[in-house]
Amino acid sequence: MIRWPLPEPMRLAFAEARIAADEGEVPIGAVVVKDGKVIAAAHNQPRTLCDPTAHAEVLAIRAAAAALGQERLEGCDLWVSLEPCAMCAGAIAHARIARVYYAASDPKGGAVEHGARVFEQPTCLHRPEVYFGMGEDEAAGMLRRFFRERR
Questions:
Q1: Close Cβ partners of 43 (under 8 Å, ≥ 6 residues apart)
Q2: Does residue 57 carry a catalytic annotation?
Q3: Which of 10, 18, 63, 116 is 20 to 30 A from 44, alpha carbon to alpha carbon?
Q4: What are phi and psi of 109, to 5 degrees?
């Protein structure tokens, strides 16, 4: 199998995930890119912020919307270390994100290729292009280490 270098946005998402792990949060990071430039980066913070919606994707989307001064993120790409859950997939659709790239699949909580498959639902008003598997081993390893250390 050929391993290509990770694109910079995914490397940044992994860096955010490592920050989350250092803070005792589940290691997930997300980055929003527009026209090749990073406009927002975030990591999971539900425990830190006492906010169950403070997933990396939601925080990155909020920061990107604030940076652009608009609620629609058309033409933006979201890079995330783990398959988005149903809440995050809904936020991605509402934000009109153009493309989603995620590293590791999440058979238990993911809602893109697993579970609810939010973007495949007839009621989903926006369907981003989805790409996955870039850096999957690294992302999955980071999650396994995080949970193993807490057992």
A1: 16, 17, 19, 20, 23, 25, 27, 28, 29, 30, 56, 59
A2: yes
A3: 116
A4: -120, -5
Here the tokens at position 58 are 């939601």
Dihedral sign for Cα atoms in the order 61, 97, 67, 132: positive
pLDDT for residue 1 is more than 70: no
Q: From the candidates 16, 23, 25, 57, which is the catalytic residue?
A: 57
Q: What is the pTM of this model?
A: 0.94
> How many other CB atoms are there within 10 angstroms of residue 125's CB atom?
9
The tally of CA atoms less than 13 A away on the side-chain side of residue 89 is: 26
Task: Look at 3-7, 8-12, 29-33, 65-69 and tell me which has the smallest mean pLDDT.
Answer: 3-7
